Amino acid sequence: MRLETSQHQRLDMRLRMAPRMIQSMEILQLPLMALQERIDQELSENPILVDLRESAAPETDSEEPSAPAEDATVGEFDGDGSDDWTESYGETHRPSRAALSEESDRKHDAMQNMASRPRSLHDDLSDQLGFLDSDPTVRTLAEYIIYNLDDNGFLNLELSEVVRDFGGDVTMAQAEDALALVQKLDPPGIGARNLRECLLLQLTPDVPCRDVLHVLIANHLDDIQQNRLPAIEKKTGISIEQIKEAMEHLRRLNPRPGARYTPESTLYVVPDLIVEANEHGEYEVRLVDDHTPQLAISRYYQKQLKNKHTDAAAREFIQKRIQSARWLIESIEQRRNTLLKVARAIIEHQKDFLDKGPEFIEPLKMQQIADRVGVHVTTVSRAVDDKWVQTPRGIFPLKRFFGGGTTTADGEEVAWDTIKQKLLEIIAKEDKQNPLSDEEIVEELGRHGFPVARRTVTKYRRTLRIPSSRQRKHF
After folding, report:
1. Do 430 and 468 reside in the same domain of the chain?
2. Model pLDDT for residues 122-172, shown as the tens digit of each residue
3. Taking a C-beta distance cutoff of 8 angstroms, is the pair 374, 380 a contact?
4. What does the alpha-carbon distance between residue 103 and residue 283 come to, in Å, rounded to a whole number?
5. Which of 138, 384, 452, 471 could be disulfide-bonded to 467 (CB atoms 3.0-4.6 Å)?
């Protein structure tokens, strides 16, 4: 009971985080290109921030200083101006609050003409979640579920895995409440665990033929896909005319509600990390940040806080902008450290994947990495979200290295991805005139030492877009 209360308090505290912590989490979640856009925007809006790479000349006596490297600081700064600065600038160099505001607004207006990163499915769902009232624990679970949806908006994690990822500090009932919360969000059908659930979630009261559609989707989806309308009529008593009418409305439902957020074509991927083998055969991870601006705080404005001629309003304005700049710089540094720690832990665990190939991927939970790095599992989720890593085996999303598994007949733990590879291999070798049923695939996998349930084979076959045995048959 005491442990549960403690967890609740921590989650409640996280819900009411200071803006500084919220910004830190947002920065951590951003992929490289989005981070650079965010930095460019901050540079345009905050005259206190400077990019050391672009600072080449000493600050002049003009009202808009060039903010050079030798006149900027990335170190600690006391907001009250208590640092021992050199001689203050004179009255003629003192920027007024109005001048600072005008400069900030001018740069902000210029930013409006720049293209911004398209909003992702996770962005929209997280925003919607913020408007819903819920228990702090359930909200945290819902956030975790959102970050684990695939590009189509489906949840491929079992709720038992979600509970396990939180180290047993939450209950299955709380996980179910969290999923129900996510499934209330737009677009309808989001957060489903399979096609049937996705379509059922879209049956709002205003959908025509709702009752008939519910029966068809819940119990006869396979018959619909095989166009076995007489069989449906015989089992349900619903006329073929009604079935056909309902199927017209069924075609208007969206089987991939999250897909609209995914660009139809991706020309290239910019990796956030690069993994390379050193001369000893060990893998080293480095962050791709060569072209990321090196932020600092202009000392010109810090000196104004020491200048006795600076009026109170301008002093307050500068202090707030300096605080905002420091938070951003610290958040970016924290992102760098966290991302490197998480990536190194992942690569260390998945060494066989890099040495031998994808079929040797090991089962891996986010909680395992969280424990190893010493952070909360939601931090790992944010760190890997929409991040890509370049490896000797190719470029992969960091999420690619996570996944559950099962125990073989020999007691060895094997990843589900390995079983998918074996499933593809079995189907590739089958007799095309007499293809294997899902039950026969289960038996074949068992002979290879992979005991799995029939529903698992059916699920993975559909995930891999492999038709049923009837559809695979060649005459």
Report:
1. yes
2. 878 887 887 787 888 888 888 888 888 887 889 887 888 888 877 767 889
3. no
4. 47
5. 471
Gap between the Cα atoms of 398 and 274, Å rounded: 11
CA–CA separation, 141 and 121 (whole Å): 17
Please give the Cα distance from 304 to 63 (Å, whole number): 12
Q: Please check whether residues 349 and 294 belong to one and the same domain.
A: yes
State how many domains the chain has: 3
Domain residue limits at 420:
405-472
Q: Does residue 48 sit within a domain?
A: yes
Which residue type, as a one-letter code, is found at position 438? D
Residue 185 CA to residue 191 CA, distance in Å, equals: 9
Q: Is residue 460 part of a domain?
A: yes
* Rounded-to-integer distance, Cα 468 and Cα 180, Å: 31
For residue 231, how many C-alpha atoms fall within 13 Å in the half-sphere facing its CB? 11
pLDDT digits (tens, 9 = 90+) for 256-293: 888 876 654 444 567 899 999 888 888 999 998 877 78
Give, in order, the Cα–Cα distances in Å from 143 to each of 3, 128, 148, 407: 22, 11, 9, 30
Asked whether residue 410 falls in the same domain as residue 387, the answer is: no
Distances (CA, A) of 299 to 46, 86, 107, 296: 14, 10, 20, 9
Which residues lie closer than 8 Å to 30 by C-beta, 6 or more apart?
38, 335
- Residue 298 has a pLDDT of 83
Is residue 393 within 8 Å of 353, Cβ to Cβ?
yes
CA torsion through residues 201, 206, 207, 211, sign:
positive
Q: Which of 300, 298, 315 is nearest to 72 (CA)?
A: 298
Q: Is residue 228 part of a domain?
A: yes
Q: Does some domain include residue 66?
A: no
Secondary structure class of 250 (helix, strand, coil) = helix
For tokens 């790479």, name the residue: 53
If we measure between CA atoms, which residue out of 449, 403, 420 comes closest to residue 359? 420
Instruction: For 69-101, write each residue's pLDDT tens digit.
Output: 444 555 444 444 333 322 222 333 344 445 445
Tell me what pLDDT residue 9 has: 53
Q: Which residues contact 94 (CB under 8 A, 6 or more apart)?
A: 304, 307, 309, 310, 314
Does the pLDDT value for residue 363 go beyond 60?
yes
Residue 131: both structure tokens together: 């408007």
Residue 414, domain CATH? 1.10.10.60
Helix (H) or strand (E) holding 438: helix 438-447
The residue type at 195: L
